[in-house]
Design a protein that fits this description.
The complex is a heterodimer of chains A (116) and B (112). With 116 residues, chain A is mainly beta. Helices cover 0% and strands 54% of the residues of chain A. Chain A is built from no helices and 11 strands. Helices cover 0% and strands 50% of the residues of chain B. Classes of the chains: A mainly beta (116), B mainly beta (112). Chains A and B meet through strand 5 of A and strand 5 and strand 10 of B.
Chain lengths: 116, 112
């Protein structure tokens, strides 16, 4: 039973346009959400995060939006660049209680292709 | 500062063989993690460690063992390799559990 779902395996956008990557979750106890970016043959790298006390977090071209009532978050990349082409993973964790609950649960990823 | 390093990068094993995947971090992080990523899937946590001498199971621990004798090293042991263990394995570390995790480049393992 997937607790973090990325229902779009792939997304293709034109350079300069907006990329919107979506993520849904089922566990209402999740209170911390992250996006990781992964290039082929490399490990994932942290991109941006958001706590459940916020509904938006921005870092340069990247903005994450959180809709707790819908259990949905999205990553917006504006403007998209060819170097953004990668697999993007959404991840979530429960509380700050330590133990296994605090570990990250990852979605399956969305492959973004930004075309020049 | 090398971050998280993993060896080997690639390995082919025969069914029933054993091997150890090495992971070292030089950031003095307390937490270390082993994940596996199967094709088209997200990362699944195998084992994690909160500090030297302390390890715990993740979501998919069967068929694996770990140890953490030092802060820097967190090896993953496969005792009897099976085709189901064909995957890409990532090691990661973080200072605290909710801090950013830094990942190694991965080990691609094939069991035939």
């Amino acid at each position: 039973d997937q607790q973090v779902k990325q229902n779009s395996p792939s997304l293709s956008v034109q350079e300069g346009r907006i990329s919107i990557l979506n993520c849904d979750y089922t566990n209402s106890m999740f209170d911390y959400f992250l996006w990781y970016k992964k290039y082929p043959a490399e490990g994932p790298t942290f991109l941006i995060s958001i706590s459940s006390i916020k509904d938006k977090n921005e870092d340069g071209r990247f903005t994450v939006f959180l809709n707790k009532s819908a259990k949905h978050l999205s990553l917006h990349i504006v403007p998209s660049q060819p170097g953004d082409s990668a697999v993007y993973f959404c991840a979530a964790s429960v509380g700050n209680y330590g133990g296994s609950q605090g570990n990250l649960i990852f979605g399956k990823g969305t492959k973004l292709s930004v075309k020049p | 500062n090398a971050g998280v390093t993993q060896t080997p990068k690639f390995r082919i094993l025969k069914i029933g063989q054993s091997m150890t995947l090495q992971c070292t971090q030089d950031m003095n992080h307390n937490y270390m993690y082993w994940y596996r990523q199967d094709p088209g899937m997200g990362l699944k946590l195998i084992y994690y460690s909160v500090g030297a001498g302390i390890t715990d199971k993740g979501e998919v621990p069967n068929g694996y063992n770990v140890s953490r004798s030092t802060t820097e090293d967190f090896p993953l042991r496969l005792e009897l390799a099976a085709p189901s263990q064909t995957s890409v394995y990532f090691c990661a570390s973080s200072y605290q559990q909710r801090d950013t995790q830094y990942f190694g480049p991965g080990t691609r393992l094939t069991v035939l």
